[in-house]
């Protein structure tokens, strides 16, 4: 039973923090969040004269002087170091084309395979339709380069994958992995969470896997709840009854 | 003025039909919304930014906003044959231009943001309802935007200036007939992104029409804002 | 939502899950999701309905027009069922001319309705051999979360049951201003319902979500109605690569009457 939490730095920042109450309110694009020279516009916000304005719909968060707007729904925007889960769609001379459910295709170079793979045997290592957990190495205009060296990365075998709205992933991982570790504990499953919203679950039996998926979907559904980790403890207790 | 002009449904000249809206009506989409003016009902769904095929259509400098507007066959009295018409193609394009100025496409080179707008029930003002729905759907999809877009049709019936015409009012033929001016603007600004007119109208009247549109759009903006915010409080 | 096709992993996992008689959402293999109906989704249609099965939503409208009869049926009105897999409804639907699934959907609804003789086409004649009513049924999925065909058929029959004949003016043209008072001619008590069965490995399921449907290898759809106190299969179509076994067809035949009663009961107040 692994307790690996693969998190991108960005995910850490956006993770739901329950001990430090940050002021949060829902804002629409173009709306003034705060006024004042002291504030710094972060992601999803910009400065216009004296005002800091929202540039997208979401939850505006004030962390000290930094103002950002967290999106609650929307497509996955790939960033360097994101762990993503994708499906092999094609094999070329130089590597594998991976569909990571985003606007650009992912590409896994031959060199990134964990052991030596002969050019003629590429499909024996990774065939079309198979699934990998990989890290985004670089995001270029024409495509996304993936890397596959690291803990928890590589070809995924057994289990299944399913999707949640990508913006809910920080909530599912929890602060320093607290939420995802709770789920792994209670269900006994291996779980890898992709920042692109795709999640891999593998358990000892189908029932454990279904339990893990249900718990994750329950959390993903909740847009904005305080004390979610405690609630989930209660959720699992109730399941036992 | 002798008598207040009576509109068929009893509204004042400057009064819009009751609006209603709902976020998330298409769960599969990245963002979606329904918006209605009285009996005109539009739904919009946004997918993107996503991959654009064929590759030669991609723009390496920015994303592309692709709008498709159409009427469902049974949204109008005389059934509309399925498939895009010239009218729907034109409205798709002007709607794209109406929304474009606020969408931060430079952040998504080589991609497409697809906006699909369909009219379920038509009683005039369909393109304006469509734009309002699309604006909500784009915001719901988390697309970076400078602001929301608000749209309303202001018109003239003979000499009376009226806001948000019904089909009955559009069909008015006495005196100077009916003029219908579809307008969209960037919320809380003086920037108009859609201007389309059919009828008979004197140039000096246009400024007054824009003033009426401004007031109506202020109301629409507050309603759009409220709808988006309420969709989250759970 | 995702446009990613099913991965090998998920297909294998679904096979295992179905083999144990289980599904991710806790349903049994032949259990149907909740159905909800909204009448009159467009006041410009002569009859219309919105159907939700789980998260799948389909809008169906009935319009009536005046046309000429087909040469081989001068004493009958016309029926045309059209539909479009709107790109709005799924990241997998594209703009442009319909693909096979976009063509198949309305055709299956057409056969289920037509072969059941639910519509009394012979009562839709205005002038025999010259002028008849044409019934247009238009089907638009709004959100595809699987099982569009069954949802569309339900929408069609409810829309038909709530259709009113438009009034004609003195020149024989439709006058939409006049209030409709005549009911649309329907055979008493006939409501065709379609039941689609999907196969993956050795399991057969009903009412799949989109995720389930995309892993399945074959589908067989039956249009069923009651005719003179008997259940009658009016239409059938198998699609997809994998064959169905005789045993599976037998099991489906045993299941059909029960499912018909179940759905009929749920829809009773709309029919």
Summarize the structure.
Chain B is built from four helices and nine strands, in the order ββββαβαββαββα. Chain B is of the alpha+beta class and 234 residues long. Chain B has a single domain (19-229), classed as 2-Layer Sandwich (Ribosomal Protein S5, domain 2), CATH 3.30.230.70.
Give your account of this protein's structure:
The complex is a heterotrimer of chains A (241), B (234) and C (271). Chain A has helices at 9-14, 122-125, 169-173, 178-187, 206-221, 228-240; strands spanning 23-27, 32-35, 40-41, 45-48, 51-54, 58-63, 66-70, 83-91, 95-99, 106-109, 131-140, 143-147, 154-156, 160-163, 190-193, 198-202. Chain A has 241 residues and is of the alpha+beta class. In chain A, strand 4 (45-48) and strand 5 form a beta hairpin. Chain A starts with 8 loop residues before the first helix and ends with a helix. Chain B has helices at residues 86-99, 126-140, 167-170, 203-230; strands at 19-23, 31-37, 40-51, 64-71, 111-121, 149-157, 160-163, 178-186, 192-198. In chain B, strands 1-2-3-5-4 form a 5-stranded mixed beta sheet. In chain B, strands 7-6-8-9 form a 4-stranded antiparallel beta sheet. Chain B is built from 4 helices and 9 strands. Chain B has one domain (19-229): 2-Layer Sandwich (Ribosomal Protein S5, domain 2), CATH 3.30.230.70. Chain C is an alpha+beta fold. Chain C has a single domain (13-270), classed as GHMP Kinase, N-terminal domain (Ribosomal Protein S5, domain 2, 2-Layer Sandwich). Chain C is globular and about 65 Å long. The mean pLDDT of chain C is 95. Chains in contact: A-B, A-C, B-C. The A-B interface holds A 26, 28-31, 44, 55-59, 71-75, 77, 102-105, 141-142, 167, 222-225 and B 24, 30-31, 47-51, 60, 102, 104, 108-111, 139-148, 186-188, 224-225, 228-229, 232-234.
What layout of secondary structure does this protein have?
The complex is a heterotrimer of chains A (241), B (234) and C (271).
Chain A: H1 9-14, E1 23-27, E2 32-35, E3 40-41, E4 45-48, E5 51-54, E6 58-63, E7 66-70, E8 83-91, E9 95-99, E10 106-109, H2 122-125, E11 131-140, E12 143-147, E13 154-156, E14 160-163, H3 169-173, H4 178-187, E15 190-193, E16 198-202, H5 206-221, H6 228-240
Parallel strand pairs in A: 3-7, 10-12
Antiparallel strand pairs in A: 1-6, 2-5, 4-5, 6-7, 8-9, 8-11, 9-10, 11-12, 11-13, 14-16, 15-16
Helix pairs in contact in A: 4-5, 4-6
Chain B: E1 19-23, E2 31-37, E3 40-51, E4 64-71, H1 86-99, E5 111-121, H2 126-140, E6 149-157, E7 160-163, H3 167-170, E8 178-186, E9 192-198, H4 203-230
Parallel strand pairs in B: 4-5
Antiparallel strand pairs in B: 1-2, 2-3, 3-5, 6-7, 6-8, 8-9
Chain C: H1 8-19, E1 35-39, E2 47-53, E3 56-67, E4 78-83, H2 100-115, E5 125-127, E6 131-143, H3 148-161, E7 164-165, E8 167-168, E9 174-175, E10 182-183, E11 193-200, E12 203-206, H4 210-213, E13 218-227, E14 230-240, H5 246-267
Parallel strand pairs in C: 4-6
Antiparallel strand pairs in C: 1-2, 2-3, 3-6, 5-6, 7-10, 8-9, 11-12, 11-13, 13-14
Helix pairs in contact in C: 2-3
């Amino acid at each position: 039973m692994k307790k690996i939490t693969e998190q991108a730095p960005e995910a850490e920042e956006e993770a739901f923090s329950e001990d430090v109450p940050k002021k949060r309110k829902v804002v629409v694009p173009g709306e003034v969040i705060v006024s004042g020279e002291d504030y710094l516009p972060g992601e999803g916000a910009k400065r216009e004269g004296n005002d800091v304005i929202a540039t997208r719909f979401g939850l505006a968060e004030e962390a000290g002087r930094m103002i950002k707007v967290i999106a609650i729904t929307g497509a996955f925007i790939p960033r360097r170091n994101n762990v993503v889960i994708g499906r092999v769609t094609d094999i070329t001379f130089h590597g594998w084309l991976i569909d990571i459910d985003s606007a650009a295709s992912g590409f896994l170079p031959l060199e990134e395979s964990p052991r030596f793979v002969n050019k003629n045997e590429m499909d024996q290592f990774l065939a079309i339709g198979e699934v990998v957990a990989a890290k985004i190495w670089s995001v270029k205009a024409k495509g996304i380069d993936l890397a596959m060296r690291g803990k928890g990365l590589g070809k995924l075998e057994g289990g299944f994958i399913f999707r949640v709205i990508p913006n809910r992933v920080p909530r599912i991982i929890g602060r320093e992995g607290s939420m995802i570790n709770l789920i792994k504990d209670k269900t006994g499953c291996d779980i890898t969470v992709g920042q692109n919203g795709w999640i891999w679950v593998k358990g000892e039996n189908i029932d454990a896997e279904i339990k893990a998926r249900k718990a994750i979907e329950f959390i993903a559904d909740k847009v904005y709840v305080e004390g979610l980790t405690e609630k989930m403890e209660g959720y699992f207790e109730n399941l036992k009854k | 003025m002798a008598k207040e002009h009576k509109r068929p449904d009893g509204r004042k000249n400057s009064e819009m039909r009751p609006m209603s809206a709902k976020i998330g009506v298409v769960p599969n989409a990245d963002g979606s919304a329904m918006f209605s003016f009285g009996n005109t009902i539009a739904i919009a769904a946004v997918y993107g930014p996503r991959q654009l095929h064929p590759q030669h259509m991609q723009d390496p400098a920015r994303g592309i906003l692709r709008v498709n507007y159409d009427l469902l066959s049974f949204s109008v009295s005389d059934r509309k044959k399925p498939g895009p018409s010239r009218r729907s193609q034109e409205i798709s394009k002007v709607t794209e231009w109406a929304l474009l100025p606020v969408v931060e496409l430079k952040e998504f080179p080589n991609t497409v943001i697809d906006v699909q707008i369909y009219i379920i029930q038509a009683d005039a003002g369909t393109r304006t309802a469509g734009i309002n729905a699309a604006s909500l759907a784009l915001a719901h999809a988390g697309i970076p935007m400078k602001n929301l877009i608000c749209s309303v049709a202001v018109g003239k019936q003979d000499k009376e200036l009226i806001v948000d015409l019904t089909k009955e009012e559009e069909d008015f033929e006495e005196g100077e007939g009916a003029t219908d001016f579809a307008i969209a603007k960037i919320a809380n600004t003086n920037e108009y992104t859609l201007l389309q007119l059919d009828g008979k109208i004197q140039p000096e009247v246009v400024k007054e029409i824009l003033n009426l549109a401004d007031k109506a759009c202020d109301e629409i903006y507050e309603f759009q804002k409220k709808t988006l915010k309420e969709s989250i409080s759970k | 939502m995702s446009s990613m096709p099913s991965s090998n992993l998920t297909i294998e996992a679904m096979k295992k899950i179905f083999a144990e008689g289980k599904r991710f959402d806790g349903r049994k293999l032949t259990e149907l999701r909740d159905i909800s109906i909204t009448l009159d989704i467009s006041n410009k249609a002569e009859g219309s309905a919105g159907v939700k099965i789980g998260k799948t939503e389909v809008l169906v409208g009935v319009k009536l027009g005046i046309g000429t009869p087909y040469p081989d049926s001068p004493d009958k009105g016309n029926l045309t069922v059209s539909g479009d897999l709107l790109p709005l409804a799924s990241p997998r639907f594209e703009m442009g001319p319909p693909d096979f699934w976009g063509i198949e959907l309305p055709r299956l609804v057409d056969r289920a309705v037509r072969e059941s003789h639910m519509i009394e086409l012979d009562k839709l004649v205005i002038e025999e051999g010259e002028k008849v009513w044409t019934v247009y049924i238009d089907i638009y999925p709004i959100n595809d979360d699987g099982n569009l065909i069954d949802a569309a058929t339900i929408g069609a029959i409810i829309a038909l049951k709530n259709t009113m004949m438009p009034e004609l003016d003195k020149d024989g043209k439709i006058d939409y201003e006049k209030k409709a008072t005549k009911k649309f001619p329907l055979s008493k008590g006939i409501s065709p319902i379609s039941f689609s069965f999907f196969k993956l490995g050795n399991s057969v399921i009903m009412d799949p979500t989109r995720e389930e449907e995309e892993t399945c290898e074959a589908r067989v759809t039956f249009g069923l109605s009651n005719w003179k106190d008997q259940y009658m299969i009016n239409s059938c179509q198998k699609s997809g690569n994998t064959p169905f076994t005789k045993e599976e067809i037998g099991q489906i035949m045993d299941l059909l009457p029960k499912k018909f009663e179940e759905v009929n009961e749920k829809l009773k107040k709309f029919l």
